[in-house]
Structure formats: structure tokens, C-alpha cells
Amino acid sequence: MIVLFTDFGTDDIYVGQVKAALLKRAPQGTAVVDLLHTVPNFDARAGAHLLAALYPFFPAAAVFMAVVDPGVGSARDAVAMHADGRWFVGPDNGLLSVVAARAPQAQLWRITGRAEDLSVSFHGRDLFAPMVADIAGGQLTSGCLQELPALSVQFGPDDCAEIIYIDHYGNALTGLRAESLARDTRLGVGDVSIAYARVFAEVPAGEVFWYANSVGLVEIAVNRGNAARALGLAVGDSLTLKRS
Amino acid sequence: MIVLFTDFGTDDIYVGQVKAALLKRAPQGTAVVDLLHTVPNFDARAGAHLLAALYPFFPAAAVFMAVVDPGVGSARDAVAMHADGRWFVGPDNGLLSVVAARAPQAQLWRITGRAEDLSVSFHGRDLFAPMVADIAGGQLTSGCLQELPALSVQFGPDDCAEIIYIDHYGNALTGLRAESLARDTRLGVGDVSIAYARVFAEVPAGEVFWYANSVGLVEIAVNRGNAARALGLAVGDSLTLKRS
Amino acid sequence: MIVLFTDFGTDDIYVGQVKAALLKRAPQGTAVVDLLHTVPNFDARAGAHLLAALYPFFPAAAVFMAVVDPGVGSARDAVAMHADGRWFVGPDNGLLSVVAARAPQAQLWRITGRAEDLSVSFHGRDLFAPMVADIAGGQLTSGCLQELPALSVQFGPDDCAEIIYIDHYGNALTGLRAESLARDTRLGVGDVSIAYARVFAEVPAGEVFWYANSVGLVEIAVNRGNAARALGLAVGDSLTLKRS
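^ inputs. structure came back:
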């Protein structure tokens, strides 16, 4: 299974070209699953924390193409990583670094082979997709990979006390893992202090709460409402924690 | 064929996780088709009328995963239904009830088996997707299904004289079936009274009309324009009918 | 491979129905790739220039279903075209005409067979999809095709000095092919005059530039910013060219 995780946009001209490039080289019948194409634009840090929360819901054989790449065309490296049983391919700009830091072990390679017709602005199609297809087909040749001791940009294993994604319901996902947070913690954002509830149905319609979402992150929500709009939340907003 | 009909959003983190869960258990090569992920948020009634209009365009072997589920985590039941040759799986909150009420016969089961690692907020991934995959594979085991005489929430077979969906052209789909409406009927919404036309090309650019759309519903449109914006239409707006 | 290029919207009820119609008739295992469903609404001319830029990134065996069809239900013809090794199926309203004009050779047929249950408003599902599936399966029967000497609506082979698409980053794609434009050309749009840069990383954050994008078109962008919002750009805006 190939899993796409990008900021290419769901309804733009980029994902279709990536899929054509994948299908050209991947073994027939390989499933290509769109995980997310709306990683906040250019935001490798938010993307890194989202990816670390999401990848465990995909099977061990999965190959992730993770591309949020504002530096395309500059000197940043392209890397392949094997961590926690999955493969990850993307730019060396921190996007893979939270997965790497939290995994018991992560093997890293710099991608040195370059397609002859490599565009300067769409490595997703011209560099990463062929590499991903080859890995999915078990065709990984050492000729174009060079072992790498560590990633260049590392965000580390720690949680990120910020809003990292706002979904279409208006729920605000944070970079905080819920398992590490006591249930009597109040979450502060701007002037607002938010208490925990286990589930939407436990609070009255219209009330703000935080809960442990389905991928293990702390999420700010309003029952049958739009939290981001109600509170004016945006990706990058800082959070404070306080035991009540 | 598995068909997805949800309010999970086309460009969010939810559909990809559902697909991974489906692919894990469904027979290899099962097609998964995204019918709609933008059912109006939390609106089981609008969803019920949309689903009843849309499902006939899918083959008899299709298994629909229909999830619009504001009550996730509360006591609402999960159900499987066999009606008009197709399978439908979803929450027992009315979403499947218009299909059920209009079908000559509908067999119903409560889903009693529960995944061990069932999240409280994402039954689409953890409960419905595995059930849908099993049905698609003919692996339906009676162990986790209990026959049900009737759905708990029933919207009935009648048409819904409201706007139930606004598409990206700005066309407003209603819950009225066009075959039951005389062509000299004028449709009232707010202060506006709207006459019938057979097809877009029959009215001047910019003119409002209603027509029998491609799934058999009455739809309000503006030739080469945006009806929702021009008339200020929203999902839930009431409609009146008057013979002219 | 079947490739979809439409203005049906990514998150609407139309694409899923098209896919069901395709899967019903196409050979098992045929890949269906969504290239674009957000061609500017009703804009066959912008679509024609986009399609001409995009199709070379798909394999020679690809069958394109290209539908931007404001005249559906009127007298416009439906056509099939074989050009540059690919198949294209769509309305004869100019959408296929830039590909046709630039290809060394284009064979054209009018689609004369009509599905019995042809809707008046959704030929994508009822007419074009079955034809595309048949071509993908090599089942093209001459019974429903009539040779055509030329398309009715022709935009010609020339570039289009307008903005033809704005992507989700806010980059504005033009109908100008970059290979024909000297790098010292300044691009004028409204009151603004824009200079060339090779790549995003070569200009400071926030600066406007034009570059040769990954599909060979001239594109207006802002490094780490939103060019369309910054400059108030819209599809259809005219461009001027001036050597500096």
C-alpha cells in the first residue's frame, strides 16, 4: 500500500500527476491511498506531528510519500526512511523527524539518484513518486541511496503545544498526545480555558471541550458546532496547560 | 464495490484511515468509490434523502458505508441493512431510513460485535469499515448481528420539501422527487417563485429555474450562474409548491 | 488508465457516479485517476489550455474523459479523439481543440450512439463514461462513431495570454508556454510588472515572480505566499509581455 501525505491540495493538478507516476512503476494492483493533501501549506513542523499521529493506522507494509516541501529546488536533501515497520520518503526538512525520533529505530538514506527530467518545482512527481513506487515493488537499488547517520532538520520527539490542523468540522487538532495529559488539565488558548470531556455527546450542544481524538491527539471541539470559528483558532496558535 | 457516503470531508484525515481499514479486510481488488464526503455536517435527514436518490446509480452488489453520526459515542445503535439488492451499513439515526421506507423490503440487523480497540469518536474507521469489508467479502457472520424489526429513527418514505444539498456550481438540490411534480408547479423559496425548465440551455444566462436533475430530484439552478449565491439559499430552507 | 478532467467538483455527488459507470464497463483492474475536477466552471477555453499542458504527463495508453460542458442538453456534439497516442472523449465545445491543433495528427469521431436512459444534464455519467470505458477495454464499436473532419469549436494552437487556473497555494497558471518566453520578459497583469526567477527558493519570501512551472506553463507565484490574494488575480485576467 502506498500512502500519500502532502500539501498538494485535494482538488488541484498535482495529485493526479503523482498517481500517474506511481502507477507507471509500482507493481500492478498496488493500492494508493490519499491520507492527506491539505497539510498546512509549507508547514513541515505541523506536518511532522500529524504524520507521527496518523501513520500507526496504516499497515506495516505501507510506503508513505510525505511531501511538504517549500524548499523544493534548493539544496535540501531527499531521504528515504525505514521506521516502525513502514517506509517513508520525503524531503529532509523535518517532516519525517518526529516519526524518526519516536521510533525505536530509524534507518535513513539520502536519495542520490536523480531523474534525468527532474523539474525544479515538482519533486513529488519526478523524484519522490518513482522512489516510492520502487520501494513498494521491492526494487530498491542501493545505487541511488546513500546511508545517512541522521536527518539534517530534527524537531525531536517531544509534543508540540500548538494547533497543528483544523478539520472541516472546525475541530482543532493539537500536537499534544492525549495519553500524557491528565484529564483535569485545562487547555488555554488565547483568553479561553478549556476543560476535558470524554466524548461529544457528553457536553451540551454549543459547548467547547477538549478530548482525546481518534488518533490519540488532544483536540479542541464544540459539540455540533465549529470550534475554530467560535474561538477564532488558527494553525500555529500556542497552547498552555494548567491542572485545575 | 464499496461506496462511501459520509460527512467526513473530502480533504481531511478521516477518509484515508477508513480506506486503510477497508483494504485490510476486503477481498483484494474490491473497488472503493467515494460517492460523497460532504453530506451537510451532522445532518442525517438531508443525508437520508440524498442517499435515497443516489444509490440506484450503483450496481446491485454495492455495499454502502453511510456515516453521518453526530451521536457517535452515545447510545445510538449501529445497523446493517439489505434493501433493493444493496447493502447499507451505518448508524441508526435516520440516515438509512428513507431508503428503508421506500424499498419493497428491507432486512435489518443491529451490529452487536464491537472491535476491541473501538475509539469513542471514529466508528467509521473502527466499527463500520470492518463490517463493510466483511460484507463485501461475503464474510458476514451472524455472531455480531442481531435481527432488528425496525429502525429506531425513521424519517418515512415521503419527500422532503427543503433544500438538502448545495453543489459547487451553486445548484440547490431539494428532497422533492421530480417525477411527482407537475411541470407547471412553481417552487417558492423565501420571496422568490421559480418556474420549471427542462434543461439549462433552455433559459437565458442568469435566469433561475427548477428542473428534474440527473438523480431525479427537483433542483434549483441558474444557467451559467450560481443559484445559491444569487438567492441566498442554504441547506434546510423550506420550499412551497403552487400550481400556476 | 482512465484519466478524469472535469469541472464536476472534487467533493460533490458527480464523480462517484461517473466512477460507478466506468467500473461497470471497463476491464477489471483499469486504474481511474482523478486529474482535475476543478477546471474553472463552464470555462472550456481555460480547460483546453490546461489539458494541453497536462496530458503529456500521462502514459500513451491513457483515455481522457474531458468534460466541461455548459451546453449539456443543447445541440453540441459529443466527440472522441485520438491524438499524440492518447484518447480523449468529451463535448465538441473547444475543450479538446488545443490538444487537437498542436498534435501532429488528430483523428476525430462524432459519438452518435446514445444511451437509452440518457439524462439531459449528466452526459458525463450517461454518455461519456460508457464510451471511455469501452475505449479503455478496446471495445470501440464503429456503430456509434462517425468520422469527423474537424471540431466545430476550435481555439487553435496558439498560447492564451490569460490566467487559466489558480491553485490552492494561490499560484496563478497562465496559458503561456514557458519555452517560448525569453527569461528577460516582464509579465504585466493589471498595474503590476513581474520578473522571472528560476525557482521559489531564489527570491525572498513574499516576493512576486514568474517561472516555468512543472507542466511547462508560465506561472505567477509568491515565495511562501499567496500570489492570487496578494495581487487580486482571477481566472480570465489578461496578461501583457514586455522585454526588459
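The first helix of chain B runs from residue 14 to 25. The mean pLDDT of chain B is 94.
thumbs up if we can close this ticket
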